[in-house]
Design goal:
The chain contains 14 helices and 18 strands. The strands form four sheets. Strands 8-7-6-11-10-9 form a six-stranded antiparallel beta sheet. A five-stranded antiparallel beta sheet has the order 2-1-5-4-3, sandwiched between helices. The chain has a five-stranded mixed beta sheet with strand order 13-15-16-18-17. Helix content is 51%, strand content 21%. The radius of gyration is 40 Å and the shape is elongated. Helix 8 crosses helix 9, helix 11 packs across helix 12 and helix 12 runs antiparallel to helix 14. The longest helix has 66 residues. About 3% of the residues have low confidence. With 577 residues, the protein is an alpha+beta fold.
């Protein structure tokens, strides 16, 4: 096949491979990273609301216990004195406690004696029995949420009244407002337009929503029988954390995080529709499709035209390159055009001439270096012999010290010469620059978003700057810190980034209290494709540490580790100070 056709096909297939590769990277990395961020955010919101709701419950339980324990009730029941003054005192409690809407009193048989709102007596008779039965077991009734026409949430709560001998004399049943609970549930920060928080309990085979939903304010204390596969069902079954393959009460697929409030039997869910959450990812996907289609169309058509003009000169270049590769350095490309192909031929000829010169220069360079290295040695050795013989049996005087100084100076001359040779040999390697270590590490930690149970400390021992290729140093720290996070198995994880000075080097370390590494893996851990675990839940290519080792060693450092299974690991590497 002629080169013009080959070139057209190569460009076409390269564009197709590029599209496939971009989608592959997108599918495995970009989307997963985005989903992780969404799940982490939902987990944080769910945990914060879980804590707030528990605090709300405890405040209300404390309040009803406080009211039921007041001497006012004990005295009235012991004296059997439920007169006008007693009822007036109860009325005053409504003013004293703003969250209390009404108070009702039942005797030890469950009979309703009094209510601050007589108009509610028929409705509270429904919950009298439940509250009374729980009070007999010294338990709190906390239920019957309602949402009135003024957009106010309220609920009923009760507690038993005991005498000095811990015998139940009666029950206090109170209707309290739930404004602070509504504030918790209505806060949709971080949940976009479709996201919301659900709070419900299971009654028989249905779920009852305790507070209004964000998109349906009429749902309080309404039953829903169609809740299979929903997040609220999973939460009511006692599941906590991220839920997968879940839909909401509308049948839409959602990302969701759940908590189970065990003492109350309530399920808590924070959720957001997948369509909204993944909208930025879809937009990025559409852009990539258009971009890559444009590249294919733009490059494939001119590839054929270009191939017709550059095919023959390229063949000549190829033949000449083969001859030069065989040692015929005197060969040159025949130049017959003034276009880019001609310029390429001229450049190729110049490169060949430079190669010839470099070979001759290397021969001379080897001679010069061997000579220059011998020069300081030829001064050092006689001086050392002289000092050894002349001052064998007497202490050093000024002349002896001067000779030692000369030995040191000559040694430094040789060291500087060697350093210069090394620097010259490594000119093609990545350019070093001042790197602010603390800022680099702090930036890495910010972008990794470690879980809340993992604490990362950066000690004050880190130097202000080091001379290093910034991207390479970032790769090293990023790999070690992300590994420490990935393999953390402790509920309270701790990762410490530290540094100590060792002669002419800084020794940086990344230590953790994670699962540790078995001794059978430690000697080969820095080899390619070595994985120090058999956990199918943790993905690893086995290449990260081998790349880190190569970077460190190419920059003149060393790397190692210390580890004990169950106690954690310390990875350390050195950087020239």
């Amino acid at each position: 096949m002629k080169i013009k056709y080959k070139l057209s096909l190569i460009i076409f297939f390269a564009a197709v491979i590029l599209i496939t590769l971009l989608y592959f990277i997108y599918s495995l990395n970009v989307r997963r990273t985005f989903v992780n961020q969404i799940e982490s955010q939902l987990e944080s919101i769910a945990e914060a609301k879980f804590i707030d709701i528990n605090q709300f419950i405890q405040r209300r339980i404390y309040l009803i216990r406080f009211i039921s324990g007041m001497e006012l009730f004990k005295d009235a029941f012991e004296l059997k004195k439920f007169d006008k003054d007693f009822f007036s005192s109860i009325d005053l409690l409504n003013e004293k406690f703003p969250t209390v809407n009404e108070i009702s009193i039942m005797d030890s048989t469950g009979h309703l004696l009094f209510s601050t709102r007589p108009d509610t007596l028929p409705s509270i008779s429904v919950i009298q029995k439940k509250a009374f039965l729980l009070a007999q077991r010294n338990k709190i009734f906390f239920n019957m949420f309602s949402y009135d026409e003024n957009n106010r949430l309220s609920f009923y709560i009760s507690a038993p009244i005991f005498n000095e001998d811990s015998i139940m004399m009666g029950v206090v049943l109170s209707n309290m407002n739930g404004d602070d609970l509504m504030e918790i549930m209505d806060d949709s920060t971080g949940l976009g337009k479709t996201g919301e928080t659900l709070l419900g309990e299971k009654q028989d085979s249905a779920v009852v929503y305790l507070v209004p939903l964000r998109h349906d304010r009429s749902t309080t204390m309404k039953y829903s029988n169609d809740f299979d596969g929903t997040a609220i069902k999973e939460a009511l079954q006692g599941k906590s954390g991220i839920l997968y393959d879940i839909h909401n009460y509308k049948g839409e697929k959602v990302f969701a995080a759940a908590r189970f409030i065990k003492d109350m039997g309530w399920g808590l869910v924070t959720q957001i529709s997948k369509e909204e959450a993944l909208k930025p990812v879809k937009e990025l996907s559409d852009i990539l499709i258009l971009l890559n289609l444009f590249i294919v169309i733009f490059l494939t058509v001119p590839a054929y035209i270009i191939g017709r003009y550059i095919g023959k000169p390229i063949e000549k270049l190829t033949r000449t390159a083969q001859l030069i590769n065989d040692g015929e350095l005197s060969e040159r490309v025949e130049i017959k055009s003034d276009d880019e192909i001609g310029l390429l031929g001229e450049t190729f000829n110049e490169m060949t001439e430079k190669l010839e010169r470099k070979i001759h220069e290397l021969e001379r360079y080897a001679y010069v270096i061997s000579h220059d290295l011998k020069a300081p040695l030829s001064s050092i050795m006689p001086l050392a012999d002289f000092v050894k013989e002349d001052y064998k049996n007497k202490p050093l005087d000024d002349q002896g010290n001067e000779m030692l100084k000369m030995i040191k100076e000559k040694s430094l001359d040789m060291k500087n010469l060697i350093d210069g040779v090394l620097k010259s040999a490594r000119q093609e390697y990545k350019m070093k620059e001042p790197v602010k270590v603390y800022d680099l590490v702090d930036h890495i930690i910010d972008n990794l978003h470690p879980p809340e149970n993992i604490k990362i400390e950066i000690t004050k021992n880190l130097p202000n700057t080091v001379q290093y290729h910034q991207v390479s140093l970032l790769q090293v720290f990023l790999n070690l810190i992300s590994n420490a996070i990935k393999y953390m198995d402790k509920p309270e994880g701790l990762i410490i980034i530290d540094c100590k000075r060792q002669d002419e080097y800084y020794q940086f370390s990344v230590s953790d209290n994670g699962r540790g590494i078995g001794s059978e893996y430690q000697s080969k851990l820095f080899n390619e494709f070595t994985i120090a675990h058999d956990d199918p839940g943790i993905s690893s290519s086995g290449l990260g540490l081998s790349i880190v080792k190569k970077i460190v060693e190419e920059n003149g450092g060393t790397i190692g580790l210390k580890s004990e299974v169950g106690k954690g690991s310390v990875f350390y590497f050195t950087v020239k100070a």
